[in-house]
Design brief:
37% helix, 10 strands, four-stranded antiparallel β-sheet, alpha/beta, 10 helices
């Protein structure tokens, strides 16, 4: 089976400190993979290399069998990898729909002025994606007017507008009220399943990992310590002591 993404022998050092120390890691189609581990373990560095924002000092990354190690971020996006950050990357003074149409235009490499956005043929598709994540009612509201949880969902809709086969997420519910986290993740995982998008997410909340991940990879000191199901990983005594802190 072709892996959606596969890293082989990745090495990256910051000021003589290894962020990635000969890491090999792969994700199969249809998975929701949680990355856990302490800060500085290499999780975000892996995401940055996978999306072209960093270059490794050694090793390679392939996406659906194609080497993307030296590709630019915009090229990787057009190949089918999208990214959602801890802080939603929205144009706050534009409406939610304008944000969506900007994403649609950028995918085609055809920047459009704001007045021309409404006439883009992708407008109905953008409305469908907003409806999919439950925020269509905010389409004509400026992004800055939305609460953090709704901004997160708009950010996911923006990522889906890029028609990804793989979505990489850095703490998808960071900054969201505890009472809203499960609802947002329920919507998110349902949308990913309906759109047939494989996903990888960095998370520090073990309840979220246990509930939503189909596989978990434990990162520690620039290496992958363990990979398995949430039950296998979270029950491991070394993981509980060294990573979770129990």
């Amino acid at each position: 089976m072709t892996k959606v993404i596969e890293a082989r022998g990745l090495k990256k050092t910051y000021h003589s400190t290894p962020a990635l120390a000969d890491v090999s890691f792969s994700v199969e189609p249809g998975r929701i993979v949680g990355l856990i581990g302490p800060n500085g373990a290499g999780k975000t560095t892996f995401l940055n290399i996978s999306t072209g924002y960093l270059r490794p000092q050694a090793g390679s990354v392939t996406f659906l069998g194609q080497d993307i190690t030296s590709q630019l971020p915009r090229t990787i996006t057009r190949l089918g990898i999208a990214r959602a950050f801890q802080i939603p990357q929205l144009f706050l003074d534009q409406t939610v729909m304008e944000n969506m149409l900007i994403a649609a235009a950028s995918l085609q490499g055809r920047p459009s002025g704001l007045k021309a956005l409404a006439s883009l043929p992708q407008a109905p598709e953008m409305e469908r994606l907003l409806d999919l994540v439950g925020v269509r009612q905010y389409a004509q509201r400026k992004a800055r007017e939305l609460p953090e949880g709704q901004r997160k969902l708009v950010d996911i809709a923006l990522a889906l507008a890029l028609k990804p086969k793989l979505l990489l997420m850095d703490e998808p519910t960071s900054g969201v009220a505890s009472s809203e986290k499960l609802g947002i993740m329920d919507i998110l995982t349902r949308a990913l399943a309906l759109e047939n998008v494989t996903s990888v997410f960095v998370e520090h909340d073990m309840d979220m990992v246990e509930r939503y991940a189909s596989r978990v990879a434990v990162w520690n000191m620039g290496k992958i310590q363990k990979v398995g199901t949430p039950a296998e990983v979270l029950a491991d005594p070394k993981v509980r002591e060294q990573v979770i802190g129990i």
